Amino acid sequence: MPSSAGYLISAIVVSVGLFFALWWILVSGGDEAPWLPAGLAASVVLLVALSAREVVMRRAWTRYLLENGIREGSSSRSRDGSRSQKKGMSASLHAAALRAIQKQSTAADRPGSTPEMHLDVAQLCHDYLASTDETMRSGGSSSEKGIALRAGQERVRALHRHHFLTWARAQSQLLTHDAQQRARTFDKIEMATRAIDCIDSALRIYPDETELNESRVAIGEFIASVKVAHWVELAERSAFKGHFRRAIDRYRDALFYLNQDVVKEEVRLAGTEKIEREIEKLKSRLRANSSPQQRRPEEADPNQN
Questions:
Q1: What is the distance between the alpha carbons of residues 205 and 208, in angstroms, rounded to a whole number?
Q2: Of 139, 123, 106, whose CA–CA distance to 62 is shortest?
Q3: Scanning 129, 169, 242, 297, which has its CA 20 to 30 A from the CA of 59?
């Protein structure tokens, strides 16, 4: 465990240093009350430092209980040879871990929480379920404590489902929104693919989530639309420059992505019809450009006569 005193001293030193630095800058600039903004900035830094330590240490202590505390308590109790003490210590550690998970779950459900907070709670739930399963398989708990462990597992399973699905939804929405704001096609597809990866990780555990399945289909349609728009834009550029054959090839590339299974049928039919019309126009222009070249030798004879 890191030193609390050392951390607090460091935070206070940084805050005091920031206060005097800002105070000196404001005094040099002629501010009439330099101590007010300097004190406010130093207070904010100190408050953030203390809050960050509280969050980090709470998570670290929970992980310690789940990953090390139970194991270390079991080894020391086995050396003592007291089976009753082993049961009591194991139950108390699990109870402490459960309380910590419920506390972090409440914090993650507050407005303004980040998707990472939900993922942290889901990971702690996974660790708790793994450790309690190991304890129950080893037979190191009485019937009453086994009932308590199973009851705790039911609560933790519900929390895991809630937080893991919340993380998948929130994270995929953030990534999809980020993809829509990107300018380059590659960046759009990369961010949207990461959103699908988040959803897939949740669907592997909870495959019957209708909302997640619908979100995955929607993101797949977005990726297909980005690819189609990319190739259509390249085709239009080629047609504008007079490269009709290249434009036709690029329109056909757009048709390839448009006819993927993720695209809705009505969208596919409407897009295919439009692109095929453009291809026919380009073919007509190709024939029109090639016809005068074929007639030119024939039209040269009357002029020569």
A1: 9
A2: 123
A3: 169
Does the pLDDT at position 129 exceed 80?
yes
Residues ≥6 apart with Cβ < 8 Å to 253: 231
Instruction: Please report which residue ranges of the chain form alpha helices under DSSP H.
Output: 4-28, 35-64, 70-80, 83-108, 115-138, 143-181, 185-203, 210-240, 244-258, 265-304
Predicted confidence band at 298 (pLDDT cuts at 50, 70, 90)?
very low
Give the end-to-end CA distance of the chain in Å, rounded to a whole number.
105
The whole-number pLDDT of residue 59 equals 64
Three-class DSSP category at 259: coil
Structure tokens at 4: 């609390």
Distance CA 273, CA 142 (A): 71
Average pLDDT over residues 8-26: 83
Task: Say which amino acid occupies 25.
Answer: I
Domain 217-290 has CATH 1.25.40: no
Q: State the pTM of this model.
A: 0.61
Q: Look up residue 121 and give its amino acid.
A: V
Nearest to 225 by CA among 280, 172, 176: 176
